[in-house]
Write a structure and sequence with these properties.
alpha/beta, 6-stranded parallel beta sheet, two-stranded antiparallel sheet, globular
Length: about 350
């Protein structure tokens, strides 16, 4: 189906879909009525009848990542990254309403005491570790980074030694893969918090699509296991505990559903972390099953890298993962992935 015009937004001309507003929550009745009118006006058919199935996978389009007030705002080097990305994502959805079969949205979902938060760790003197730093297996082995003994009763056999051994094994397994080392993030996306929810503009667009096309828009919860990271939507980073028991498992049902689609389109935050590892996992699954990589489409202008400004030095960053994103985009293209733009017409993507 040809690209559709953009429906009128409820916000100012500079941000008609209110992509940059923390407090925006769409009026659900108004969205349903507007979508019904749009369906009639443009003769939209039910998504279930699509001859070509296209799934848009939105990775972690949550307030804490996508808005400057968020706990872990993904501003990119420009400082406006995720806000502008969101605007492009929602315009892509509205213009391609007739070309998308399903929109699935993952939600990074955390609780206060998880292995990638500072609250989980203390140093040799019992002082909590700072955030925005790596924790190395060698530090755990030397007692310079210690899982908080106060948490031991919640895990394994309830002893501090069990938790220490588990943390050491976890860091060793991460480092053995060569992907990255354990990184401590500031608290973000806590279940029940405002920051956990989808940005209002994205929520409105996915509901408009659902009402206009009679389509499913599933929510995918990830990241609740306190002892492993869950960057990729498809699987946790580590599956096995140090004692050989299961730590977590892959989302096999989602993997099968995505690989069964004619096209999978990925956008979201952050390009350097959850999007990158999701795309890597999808690509690996496609390659292992003989599915052409050309079925995977990445909206490169709908995602930004984590770049943490240094408050003491304007123009410098405490952490900047932009080079990792650039390298990944190059690698994906070489593998046959379609690195696309939100301005593209998705009607022939398969």
């Amino acid at each position: 189906m040809a690209l559709l015009p953009l429906p009128a937004g409820a916000g100012p001309k500079s941000d008609p879909y209110r992509s940059g507003e923390w407090s925006y929550n769409p009026d659900l009745n108004r969205v349903a009525a507007a979508a019904a009118d749009w369906r009639s006006r443009h003769q939209l058919t039910p998504a279930a009848a699509d001859e070509t199935s296209r799934v848009l996978l939105l990775v972690d389009e949550q307030r804490d990542f996508c808005l400057p007030e968020g706990a872990l705002y993904v501003g990119g080097r420009s400082g406006r990254g995720a806000v502008e990305d969101t605007g492009r994502v929602v315009r892509f959805i509205y213009r391609n309403l007739g070309n998308l079969t399903e929109i699935a949205s993952s939600l990074d979902s955390h609780t206060p005491q998880q292995i990638f938060f500072s609250s989980f760790w203390v140093d040799g003197s019992g002082r909590q570790l700072d955030g925005y730093r790596e924790v190395l297996a060698s530090e755990v082995e030397a007692g310079k980074a210690v899982p908080n003994p106060a948490l031991a009763g919640w895990f394994g056999d309830g002893t501090a030694e069990w938790l220490r051994r588990q943390a050491l094994d976890y860091c060793q397994r991460l480092e053995a893969t060569g992907k990255y080392r354990l990184y401590l993030w500031p608290p973000h996306c806590f279940l029940g918090s405002e920051g956990h929810g989808l940005v209002g503009a994205v929520q409105e667009a996915r509901l408009f699509f659902s009402y206009a096309r009679g389509a499913e828009t599933p929510i995918l919860i990830k990241g609740t296991n306190p002892l492993t990271e869950y960057y990729s939507v498809l699987a946790p980073e580590v599956l096995i505990r140090h004692d050989g028991e299961e730590l977590d498992r892959r989302n096999q049902a989602l993997i099968d559903r995505l690989l069964g689609a004619d096209a999978v389109i990925v956008a979201g935050q952050a390009a350097s972390h959850c999007v990158r590892y999701t795309v890597d996992d999808l690509l690996a699954e496609m390659q292992s099953r003989g599915v052409p990589a050309s079925r995977l489409h990445v909206l490169a202008d709908c995602m930004s890298a984590v770049a943490v400004p240094d408050p003491a030095t304007p123009g410098e960053f405490l952490a900047d993962f932009t080079p990792e994103v650039e390298a990944s985009m190059k690698r994906w293209r070489e593998a046959g992935v379609h690195v696309a733009s939100s301005e593209d017409d998705a009607s022939d993507w398969s």
